[in-house]
Amino acid sequence: MASRLTRSVESMPGSLRSMYRSVPTTCFLQARRGNATTIDKKPKLIDLSRELYHRSPAHPFHPPVVLTPWDVHQPKRAGNTVLRSASYALSMSDHAGTHVDAPKHFDPTPGALSIDQMPIEDFYTEAICLDLSHVELKATISVKEMEDALAASGQEIKQGDTVMVYMAFNKRVPFDDPRWQHDFPGLSLEAVHWLADKGAKIFGVEAISPAPEGEPNFQAHNACGERGITHIEGLDNLDAVVNKRFRFMGFPLKIREGSGGPMRAVALLE
């Protein structure tokens, strides 16, 4: 079984091969007597995504989420068989809910990557989560605060890591509270550069922006363009991974020429 699995993995395209190699071997199916299979160790998956629903909160710069019933179990007949199926029309920004910004969003340079052009490997990475839950609402997080949080975590930022920044924002301000769109803390311009200097490829926050409203937010977006990194907005449940190292998976919708992509963000704890 192991040799066949090895041959199968080696025959995969390069991107898939590297992804499979990064999965712990205890997660692979093991052959058992009678051709039965089992998984030696089941990894713990933690959903880091926000729920999307009709009129769920959106950034003021973007259109609202609109979910409209299109066909709700109306009977359809083919011969003697009746089918009752449901579908909904969904209208939203490519920055709705939990999503990642493509370089095209904050980089006006011709040729800046759209979401469908970003390497899929960018969204399957090692990750850590830093605890900044003590910061005040609307606060701008300094490099010193990031350094202290990293030291307290006992982790290190490795080249290519995704770094989540837990600010306990969702626990302090309900999702449907108008303050959720305005009172979030976030990173300073210097903190964004610090993450890039450390080798982070992506960072993630709970709020709808990576930095507080106004100029700090614009500066943070521009810095991402300058440094060739990006960020995820609208994360949830980061308290479950704070101060931990884990595998992050968050694959955005493949939207042609999209400036961002809604995703189902997941942490895998071994």
UniProtKB/TrEMBL annotation:
Gene Ontology biological-process entries: L-tryptophan catabolic process to kynurenine
GO molecular function, one term: arylformamidase activity
Record-linked PANTHER family: CYCLASE-LIKE PROTEIN 2
Family: Belongs to the Cyclase 1 superfamily.
Protein name per Swiss-Prot or TrEMBL: Kynurenine formamidase
Provenance organism: Saxophila tyrrhenica
